[in-house]
């Protein structure tokens, strides 16, 4: 019996990576994957400041994805029959890594993928953003107000923001 389809599936399993943490579980045939940013400023900077693009993707976020990709592929592969849908959520730089995860896993996962990000920088140039939008039909991106530090420099380096990005407020 797969470890994620037993009673332990109600608990999140964790992967601690440099610069971010991943939590995942399978519940009611849905794989939930959460990408959380680190609380360590130096780890955050080491991921964030590698801003050059490789094939249209932010190098720091791409390297972060590759650091966890084999582990996540094994989770998906070993629980393939127990997964009907995949829901991904990302917070801060975890949301950027979550978008890279969805882009690269879309072909490997036969099930529909939904992504929600909160206050996440964009990891793609315009061409990669269009490819992502084509592959991932269900996506929501939320930001809290206007983030000058996260927005202006990123646009200057040629990154493209999601068209459906929405503002949220704490009331």
From TrEMBL:
<dbReference type="Pfam" id="PF01764">
    <property type="entry name" value="Lipase_3"/>
</dbReference>
<dbReference type="GO" id="GO:0006629">
    <property type="term" value="P:lipid metabolic process"/>
</dbReference>
<protein>
    <recommendedName>
        <fullName>Fungal lipase-type domain-containing protein</fullName>
    </recommendedName>
</protein>
<dbReference type="InterPro" id="IPR002921">
    <property type="entry name" value="Fungal_lipase-type"/>
</dbReference>
<dbReference type="InterPro" id="IPR029058">
    <property type="entry name" value="AB_hydrolase_fold"/>
</dbReference>
<feature type="domain" description="Fungal lipase-type">
    <location>
        <begin position="50"/>
        <end position="153"/>
    </location>
</feature>
């Amino acid at each position: 019996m797969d470890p994620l389809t037993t009673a332990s599936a109600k608990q999140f399993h964790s992967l601690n990576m440099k610069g971010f943490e991943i939590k995942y579980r399978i519940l009611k045939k849905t794989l939930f994957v959460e990408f959380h940013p680190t609380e360590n400023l130096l780890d955050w900077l080491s991921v964030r400041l590698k801003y050059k693009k490789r094939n249209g993707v932010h190098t720091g976020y791409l390297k972060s994805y590759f650091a966890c990709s084999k582990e996540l592929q094994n989770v998906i592969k070993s629980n393939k029959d127990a997964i009907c849908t995949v829901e991904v959520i990302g917070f801060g730089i975890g949301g950027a890594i979550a978008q890279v995860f969805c882009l690269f896993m879309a072909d490997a996962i036969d099930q529909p993928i939904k992504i929600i990000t909160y206050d996440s920088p964009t990891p793609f140039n315009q061409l990669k953003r269009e490819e992502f939008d084509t592959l991932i039909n269900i996506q929501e991106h939320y930001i809290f107000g206007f983030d000058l530090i996260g927005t202006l420099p990123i646009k200057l380096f040629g990154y493209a923001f999601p068209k459906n990005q929405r503002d949220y407020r704490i009331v």
